[in-house]
Amino acid sequence: MAMGAAATKLHLSSFARRPTLHQLAAVAVLCSLSYLAGVWHHGGLTAGPPSSSVSIATTASVTCASPAPALLNRGGASPPLDFRAHHTAEGAEAVSAPAQRVYEACPAKYSEYTPCEDVERSLRFPRDRLMYRERHCPSDGERLRCLVPAPRGYRNPFPWPASRDVAWFANVPHKELTVEKAVQNWIRVDGDKFRFPGGRHHVPARRQRLHRRHRQAHPAPRRIHPDRPRHRLRGNFDLAILVASWGAYLLSRNILAMSFAPRDSHEAQVQFALERGVPAMIGVLASNRLTYPARAFDMAHCSRCLIPWQLYDGLYLIEVDRILRPGGYWILSGPPINWKKHWKGWQRTKEDLNAEQQAIEAVAKSLCWKKIKEVGDIAIWQKPTNHIHCKASRKLIKSPPFCWNKNPDAAWYDKMEACITPLPQASDIKEVAGGELKKWPQRLTAVPPRIASGSIEGVTDEMFKEDTKLWKKRVGHYKSVITQFGQKDRYRNLLDMNAHFGGFAAALVGDPMWVMNMVPTVGNSTTLGVVFERGLIGNYQDWCEGMSTYPRTYDLIHADSVFSLYKDRCEMDTILLEMDRILRPEGTVIIRDDVDLLVKIKSIADGMRWNSQIVDHEDGPLVREKLLLVVKTYWTLGDEKQ
């Protein structure tokens, strides 16, 4: 039997190696018949229509006759990828895809809707210490499920740097500040435009006096301290911004200001700043910590901000101390500084103003700040570079005490406390607590002290350096496939929804744009401190909630693995609708994520007046991670599409 089986096996192998001519002919005929049957079944041999263009086009911003610019640079881009199922098993019925949801436009009253700072909802909360103006986000049942419209007549903002001095009235249709601040002349209406005389750097002769007053009220960084060269100052925190002329003024000195103001009776302060191309967010000093890590800013500035610094045991000045870097500066101008000269104009008594200034001086001294100078309407204090002497002084100065067992960087709905946030340990009085930063721009690519010291668990120097290289490569790829990245004035305000170390922003620092680096609270939020140490700006954010900014804030939104991070945390369209709210008409979105998620995202985006397509990863088609590139179409209130 064994011999017979072996003979059979040998015979079959021999037969397989030597097929006959008849067998080959039969196989060829069967293959040909099968191919022809398949072609006939799927539409025959007639020529089909030409394939459609792969470029994403935006609707014209003025008239339908305007040319529509393409998003993709076709020089090196791959064709759009289609992941839909096109075939079914024999005998099985094709399952129809669910009907695509089309998102309608919200009513006109929501054109300036800010979900977590909604004026009507805020009235439900206590007015004590302005807590009603803090973040109060809508519940699931209160969320808008529609597209926030641009106001009638909306036009794309002027390109930078022209936007620093002029904005379209239709984009921010509010005249309140032009009336209330008419004497100060920071803003005025000129036909269909707003003009900002206080923010100009080169003014006509008839405005030289105004410009000199502006420079006196807002000192150049080199005048703050003779031993502190201006390239040591990079991050500035500006409270009560009016129209952000201070922030606009500092940009020419490579100082990046984070402008900050509540949504209050001074309508649209933050909105004006953003229209001008200056970083800004809605916020208020009330009961919660400011949404920044400790040791974030080199300088904080308050000009006529009317914040009661001396009240509540100095709580608000204590919070400024938390976010100031070691050796950082606090600049105060306006009441009560120089009250001896201005007390009549402020309509307050000498005794009241003197008491207020003395109380502020006492709080600053209790924080171990040193008063550098008081000249004219300006007073400047400096925070110590470490807390060696300050801790020793607590034997005499009992209040405020140092905080213990409190994460200094925790700042997402965390309450302020009347205690000093301790600086990292220092061994010498001359040592900068937490590590000294490099000068700008070297600090952008140098390993940040938080990483070098091992403060961020699981992150090494080499990981940071590799991340910097990776984002240079990725941004280079974006520029190769997105046409608008090659246009110098196309983008100004950018948002990175999952910034990590800020590598995306760092790779773009040479371009005339700024990036708001958001660090999600559901991930490793400790990296926001690294973002600030690099000389960039950012904020904490939970993307299941609205962002503290106005509609139409950003020209480009970058979302790296955001939907993977928030999978099963909130609905996908909750995040997408918020992205649409804060994106300008004809703005761009880059979503980087797993291909299965991108297919689902695209199915939603196609019902949101977005033009989108999926393209390959920069490393080729075999990588599961892909890119979804989006352009938001132009439409406004009154548009026939609505």
Please give a handful of descriptors for the protein shown.
642 residues; alpha/beta; 7-stranded mixed beta sheet; 19 helices; 17 strands; 27% helix; disordered N terminus
Shape: globular
Low-confidence stretches: 1-17, 42-69, 91-97, 199-215, 217-223, 225-230
Strand order of the largest sheet: 6-5-4-7-8-10-9
Total strands: the figure is 17
Alpha plus pi helix count: 19
Helix content: 25-40%
Mean pLDDT: 84
- Strand count, sense and closure of the main sheet? 7 strands, mixed
Judged by helices, strands and strand pairing, the structural class is alpha/beta
End-to-end Cα distance: 84 Å
Radius of gyration: 30 Å
Strand content: 15-25%
Walk me through the structure.
This protein is an alpha/beta fold and 642 residues long. The protein has helices at 2-17, 21-41, 119-122, 176-180, 208-217, 245-251, 269-275, 315-323, 339-342, 350-366, 388-393, 442-445, 449-452, 461-481, 503-507, 528-533, 562-565, 572-582, 595-605, and strands at 166-168, 188-190, 193-195, 235-239, 256-261, 280-282, 297-303, 324-333, 370-375, 378-382, 493-496, 514-520, 537-541, 554-560, 583-594, 610-615, 625-632. Mean pLDDT is 84; it is low at 1-17, 42-69, 91-97, 199-215, 217-223 and 225-230. The strands form 3 sheets. Strands 6-5-4-7-8-10-9 form a 7-stranded mixed β-sheet. It has a 7-stranded mixed β-sheet with strand order 13-12-11-14-15-17-16. The protein has 19 helices and 17 strands.
Brief summary:
The protein has 19 helices and 17 strands.
